[in-house]
Amino acid sequence: MRTETLRDFRVPVTEPAAPYAVSTGMPDEAPVYGEYPAYYEEGAQPAAVPLQPGYAPQPPAPPAPHHDPRQDPRHDPRHDPRQEEPPQARGEGHLHSQAHADDDAEPVHTMSQGSPDEDELDGYTPTYRDLPVIGSGALGGPGDTVQVQYVPQDVAGPGPLYVVGDVHGYLDELVTELRAQGLIDSEGRWSAGNARLWFLGDFTDRGPDGIGVIDLVMRLSAEAAAAGGYCKALMGNHELLLIGAKRFGDTPVVSGAGTATFQAAWLLNGGQRTDMERLQDVHIQWMSRLDAAVLEEGHLLLHSDTTAYLDYGDSIEDVNDTIHELLNRGDVDITWDLFRKFTKRFAFRDEETGPQAVRELLDTYGGSRVVHGHSPIPYLLGEVGTEDGDESRGPEAVDGPHVYADGLAIAMDGGVTMAGKLLVVRLPLSD
Questions:
Q1: Rounded CA gap, 330 and 307, in Å?
Q2: Which residues contact 356 (CB under 8 A, 6 or more apart)?
Q3: CA-CA distance, 404 to 347, in Å (whole number)?
Q4: What is the DSSP string of 379-397?
Q5: Alpha-carbon dihedral of residues 286, 287, 289, 290, nearest 10 degrees?
Q6: What is the pLDDT of residues 142-179, one digit of tens each?
């Protein structure tokens, strides 16, 4: 049994007289709020963002005058994914579409086959099984009221910059790495003051608690903003996949392998039923508003190692606006095309053409380096499942980001789904 507390995430510009609890209410006369992502639209349901399992609850503070806090106890069973083996681990696929089982459907990739290269655009489809899944125990525990306290900052200018690679539902590993970098405290609250933290996308699928990861990031966003820093996120292909699976389910789309569905692709690529059961409208709204690209201190932050971003605009602002507009149309084919393009990978890996592809992105959008997730470093190195003498060269050998493409690209996906490392790294690198 989990008890979740409804709340919003708005942070006043002016310093309040006392710590305040984030509430659920939408006041008739709302105060002025600073630059902070609005997680609600008119008529939307508030978010349920519990303090993560294992964290000591903080005693609730009296509500501010403008807030009307309410609690909404909910029964939220947490299934151990090891008891309900996902279809991709069984190799079944569960495509939920009769047409998808046509004889001309493309084969499912196995670990030994690897993932399709960037130059396979014409034939590639996300209905490929993508990367392997490593099981993990489900998380569970009580929720509690999140307290957000305004902390005045004496330090002028922005704080240090950190980036996080693909999380894929591995909440425990994420918490461990954020603590190791001093970004959260022992109770899981933001403790980094005016630091800046960027997640590179892919919060869900393959791991046991994708919704728990999203809830944590949303809560840290509020706490970081109140402390003078920020915690933000980019849209990954698995955000597009989850949005599509929720919105369109078994609605058929035409892919390179014939007819497919978002539901089929989601299951095939590690979708967890426990995530879908706990997915709320506020999660969909939050994911739908994520940007696809951002420039931070000369680092062009992207999710995917692909040049597909160039299809959506000649500036970062244009890319983000175009993708938001297309996604908000609610069209299954348009959403599928977005997902298909941002599922491509390995554009920067080739020693001859890779640096040129990175330079094309940097020349268009600015920056001196691309920082991306999406493609696990073991795949980029071609070392999955191989050995060099007696020395293992698998995912467990990855202990930091991978700099490649003539030093122009930094890969941040350490392969946590393959028993590798979840990377949280401070930029710039000291290489």
A1: 24
A2: none
A3: 12
A4: HHHT-TT-EETTEE-SGGG
A5: 120
A6: 334 444 455 555 555 789 999 999 999 999 999 999 99
